[in-house]
Design a protein that fits this description.
This protein is about 30% helix and about 20% strand. The chain is built from eight helices and twelve strands. A hairpin with a 5-residue loop joins β5 and β6. α1 runs antiparallel to α2 and α2 packs antiparallel against α3. The chain is globular. It binds aspartic acid. Aspartic acid binds next to β8. Pfam families: Asparaginase_2.
Length: about 325
């Protein structure tokens, strides 16, 4: 969606120290079930992808380009629940959602319920750039993608055996809709429903050298979701938000609760209207607002000063950040 608003970038005179943060979902394999090799694989992929975003920022690229590329790479990686490797709906299909927002202009683009677009985040970016609208659904989103030269794929492209097995376990255990990190829930025989619950929604947030903020989020949603269900990820203010006045946020977790609490925008509002710091605002939302409503998950956040917070209330969150000129930092668990 194009707009004429210029949200303060022009007034930023200091050269900022650019930084990017990414997440691969708040669902983490329980520590007990995580082998050293598996952990290394996740950490290596997170480091590779956050480094790619860092390189764009280091070359003077925009925050918008850095988050687009980081999320595209996360979508391409089958370890994570977005693009290739996305979770299945109850009906055995893939319905993908993605969103991107430019903190400089408050322009945004999003798609939801798509099954034939290889990289939903690239189509969301096209919506931001080429359409007067913000959010396209289903067949209309796919028509828009085709008209804008996006790579289309057959739904089988998104298939991974692990995801299919995960759906069968959820159906057999009659869990209802399941977040990746719900996999530790025990079935009637006292075993974890999904000991391999190793995937997650993906996202990226960044600030560039001009002080412009951007955020992007992409997901397959929740395992065993009903056809047509849309979560927080493609919803501005819930799963994704960026404003140069305050902060860029990408969320992951129980989408319905992030929507009901308008979680990403709530952080921005607490900072803008109540004067909270980034740390205070993200803590309040993740620990005090989401949890009481059963909202499990976390978020990644970069504020207009380049501060970074990566809070979560789940066992872990695949995450990393990289400042230009410094080594990337990646982690999964609390310590
Ligand atoms: N928030 C996503 C959704 O509800 C799921 C996730 O973050 O893993 O669709």
């Amino acid at each position: 969606m194009s707009s004429s608003t210029d949200n303060s970038a022009a007034s930023v005179s200091n050269k900022k120290r650019p930084v990017i943060a990414i997440h691969g979902g708040a669902g983490a394999i329980t520590r007990a079930a995580m082998s050293a090799e598996k952990e290394q694989l996740y950490l290596a992929e997170l480091e590779r992808i956050v480094s790619a975003g860092q390189a764009i920022l280091a070359a003077g690229g925009s925050a918008l380009d850095a988050v687009t590329e980081a999320v595209r790479l996360l979508e391409e990686c089958p370890l994570f629940n977005a693009g290739k490797g996305a979770v299945f709906t109850h009906q055995g299909a893939h319905e993908l959602d993605a969103c991107i927002m430019d903190g400089r202009t408050l322009d945004a683009g999003a798609v939801c319920g798509v099954s034939h677009i290889r990289n939903p985040i690239l189509t969301a970016r096209k919506v931001l750039e080429n359409s007067p609208h913000v959010l396209f659904t289903g067949a209309g989103a796919e028509d828009f993608a085709r008209a804008n030269g996006q790579e289309m794929v057959e739904p089988e492209y998104f298939f991974t055996q692990e995801r299919y097995d995960q759906l069968q376990r959820a159906i057999a255990a009659d869990t209802g809709v399941m977040l990746d990190h719900d996999g530790a829930t025990l079935n009637a025989s006292g075993e974890p429903i999904d000991p391999e619950h190793k995937f997650g929604t993906v996202g990226a947030v960044a600030i560039d050298e001009l002080g412009n903020l951007a955020a992007a989020t992409s997901t397959g949603g929740m395992t065993n979701k009903q056809a047509g269900r849309v979560g927080d990820s493609p919803i501005i203010g819930a799963g994704c938000y960026a404003s140069n006045n305050t902060v860029a946020i990408s969320s992951t977790g129980t989408g319905e609760v992030f929507m009901r609490t308008v979680a990403a925008y709530d952080v921005a509002a607490l900072m803008e209207y109540a004067g909270l710091t980034l740390e205070e605002a993200t803590h309040k939302v993740v620990q005090e607002k989401l949890l009481p409503l059963g909202g499990s998950g976390g978020m990644i956040a970069v504020d207009k000063f380049g501060n970074v917070e990566l809070p979560f209330n789940s066992e872990g969150m695949y995450r990393g950040f990289a400042r230009v000129g410094e080594a990337p930092v990646v982690s999964i668990y609390r310590s």
